[in-house]
Request: fold
Amino acid sequence: MTINSASAGQAPDAATATVAYNMTTNGTNKKISAALDTAMPTGLTLNATMAAPESATSSGKLALSTTSVDLVTAISKVRGTGLALNYEAVATVDASPDSYTRTVTYIITNN
Reply:
């Protein structure tokens, strides 16, 4: 994602990207958590939103960091395909122009 447009004196416009994910579980009361490998630099935030499979609950848009956040909870015995995973990169005027790479790790565990 590239953040590259802003009005004078304003924060740059957010950049977005959407991918799809699939999941299948025979377990009950599972959750999907996510964390970054390295903290975001000052002035930059990476948000993620995951659509929940049937009968599960999405936590909505959450900021990602090196501390794990629960994006989807209450997952039980389900097969979901083509579920949306949305990313949003947001910069403030404090962000330094540069190129940054972050790895997001997703984990499915018990609630």
